[in-house]
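User: Some background: our group keeps a shared notebook of sequences we're curious about, and every so often someone picks one and asks for a predicted structure to add to the entry. Today it's my turn. The entry only has the sequence so far, pasted here. Could you supply the structure so I can complete it?
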Amino acid sequence: YDLGAFSSTGAKAEVHRTSPGESLKLLPAVEIEHRRLGATESARSITTYVVPGINYRGPSLPQIQWLNDTATGPGENRMEYEGNWEYNNQQSGACVSDNHWSPSTGDVCRIYFHGAGIKLYAAMGPNLGIAEITLDDGEPIRVDHYAEERKDQSLVFSSPALEADDHEILIKVTGEKSPASTDYHVPVDRADIEPEQVDRRTP
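Assistant: Of course. Here's the predicted structure to add to the notebook entry:
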């Protein structure tokens, strides 16, 4: 990856991989040399690189649009719920202090958006289960929301770069959970949409 559009970066990138058997698994850091990052990525996986110490002095970047879980009205960026989803408007730590959740197998949340990328944020916690996330016609990816302690607005899914077009994400309640979890709830909280691709190559 060419990071030449940035005036400076950190020395290493933090690496997270999501695949059918992994959910943002932390991998060994990758060296950044001469503002270039080289890596080999596994098939049927999405790899996210977190680069510290970035300074950018080029043209203004497009603004990320965030979508709250209550954005069910008309528009190209919206969420639709199917099944028995519950809603809490007093969830401390969640985006605008609210979120949806369901423990019912087969319940789905569809996110329709126009853009070139998307990130999903939701809670991790001791009573949460496993979701299945499908982007467009891709392979479903399982995301385990279990954690020993609750943490809202955790990054749970990050898409690869997409064509700036209409896309759909499906979040499905699997009815499965980690053995350590006390319940099967799957939460929905917030989505960040990148409106267009950014050409980061140097002239």
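Suggested note for the entry: Residues 199-203 have pLDDT under 50 and may be disordered. The chain has no helices and 18 strands.
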